[in-house]
Amino acid sequence: MALSEDLPLYRDSLQLLNRLIPLTQGFPRFFRYGLGSRMVELNLDMLSLIYKANSSYEKVAVITEFLDKYRMLQMLFRVCVEQRVITERQYAGFALTMEKIGKQGTGWKQYNEKGKQSNENRK
User: To which H or E segment does residue 82 belong?
Assistant: First the structure.
């Protein structure tokens, strides 16, 4: 088992957090404490869930929770664009990283679901 910090999913999520914090600090006051702090909190939860999934045997439930938080963060980014808190150009830079995170998380979940099914078939 690799260290969580060595996983590409963890590194991409950490990179997202390091870019998200300065972005949310520039939000107008009304959005900074609502949307901005929620977005950072979701990203921190995602990092925590990567660590938790990497160190547990029942990964599928944890990865599912990770993907739920990912989708919520994605939705909040869309709200920010629609409310004109960030520009579409700013969002485009984040969208590439978000897409990578989503693909990696979904792939990790599918891999573990297949492994679970093959173990059940052996019994």
Answer: helix 59-82
Quote the pLDDT of residue 115. Answer: 76
- The pLDDT score that the predictor gives to residue 4 is 78
Scan for tokens 């690799």, then name that residue: 2
Residue 66 burial (CB count, 10 A): 25
**pLDDT average, residue stretch 43-70:** 95
Cβ atoms within 10 Å, residue 97 = 15
pTM: 0.89
Q: Which residues of 2-12 are buried (b: 16+ CB within 10 A; e: fewer)?
A: eebeebebbeb
